[in-house]
Specification:
By secondary structure, this protein is α+β, with helices and mostly antiparallel strands. 23% of the residues lie in helices and 26% in strands.
Length: 114
């Protein structure tokens, strides 16, 4: 069996926001992309089974839009610049994901519902 390729140890930067939220930031310049994957701890109270309310909540978080912008508007905006946005909810966590080309990162900030 061939030897594994060497890899560099990575150490994320730990940032604590004023509200107590902890972020781990890690820069990787091997690809020209910006990616975020926040995860939040949550309890299963009120969502006893997989799927059902958790799945519906995650879907609405991603596709529901806001009072200012519809979910379809966001889908069109993301598609136009080759970006993606996702959400998921498990029994003990909620997460979201974001990906876009670095050159479009500033344009993506206009995608957030306001």
């Amino acid at each position: 069996m061939p030897a594994l390729n060497p890899f560099a140890k990575v150490t994320p930067e730990r940032v604590v926001l004023p509200n107590g939220l902890v972020l781990f930031l890690l820069e990787d310049h091997t690809l020209p992309v910006v990616q975020a994957a926040p995860m939040f701890a949550r309890t299963a109270r009120g969502c006893p089974r997989p799927g059902g309310p958790r799945s519906l909540t995650a879907t609405v978080m991603r596709t529901g839009g806001s009072a200012a912008k519809s979910g379809d508007w966001l889908d069109d905006r993301l598609a136009a610049i080759g970006a993606s946005l996702s959400s998921n909810m498990g029994s003990d966590y909620a997460s979201a994901g974001f990906w876009c080309l670095s050159e479009n990162a500033r344009r993506c900030s206009g995608c957030s519902p306001r």
